[in-house]
Amino acid sequence: MSSSRRPLKSLGQNFLVDRNVIDKIILAAEIHSDDAVLEIGPGRGALTGQLAERAGRVVLIEFDHALAAWHRNLFKDDERVTVIDGDVLKVDLEAVLSATSRKWKVVANLPYNISTEVLFRLIKVHDRLSRMTLMLQREVGDRLASAPDSPAYGVTTVLLGLWFDISREFVVPPGCFHPSPKVDSAVLTFSALSSPRADVGNEDIFKNIVKSAFSMRRKTLANCLKSAECTRETDLAELLKSCDIDGRRRGETLSLEEFARLSLWLSERTSS
Ligand code: SAM
After folding, report:
1. Residue 176 beta carbon below 6 angstroms from any ligand 1 atom
2. Helix, strand or coil for residue 75?
3. I want to staple 72 with a disulfide (CB 3.0 to 4.6 A). Which of 44, 83, 95, 159 is the partner?
């Protein structure tokens, strides 16, 4: 069995070995028999068996060829399970998830080295998702559940917060993995909202504004917006005044609703 091979650090292979934590993640994922589930990085299958037992359809994306082959063989007689031997950062997620009109549940103990990039990819397919249960480095998890103007507040907090209710379920200490990582982990759930938390107009403009506001954390919002693509043709003073936002504030002090006001105003200007 391939699972006896030494874990690969380059692929962030810290396998879950604590039965109690595994059961708690499965419970938090709220999998029902008609659910479609995407597991990113099934590894040695700590979560996979229970997911396949409970769900109606399961897709696994695993970059380690040996582990992908192992899963493919294990599930060869189960047509509900599909194994994709590939890089989650390159796989066309939209194509994978459009295979069914059902909304997907994502479950993953994410490789830490690419977790933020994976989050950005998941944001792009948010309309295909109903729930995500993700294990992240604790620090990254704290960022997602943090408030404006706290050091951890960041781009992903705002972008994911537009589409999901995010809550930290529990912290997982290093000893629950093999090999043990150096830091704590946390399991977070992301429940998709039925409509976005705020009207942002054009979503691309919203993303552009948020990314610009956090691009230079020490600079004022007005300075950050000057270099944003979507404000190129805009009178910034008029934008900030109309949205009742002081341009001397730092970008990271804005709430999601304030980012939405800026984005909506710009979207309406661009489309008129
Ligand atoms: N789910 C298993 C568990 O909980 O024990 C494994 C989790 S381990 C932290 C991360 C898994 O993601 C590994 O199996 C690793 O091979 C896989 N992986 C790493 N980079 C990947 C990528 N770019 N695309 C898909 N899978 C990846």
Report:
1. no
2. coil
3. 83
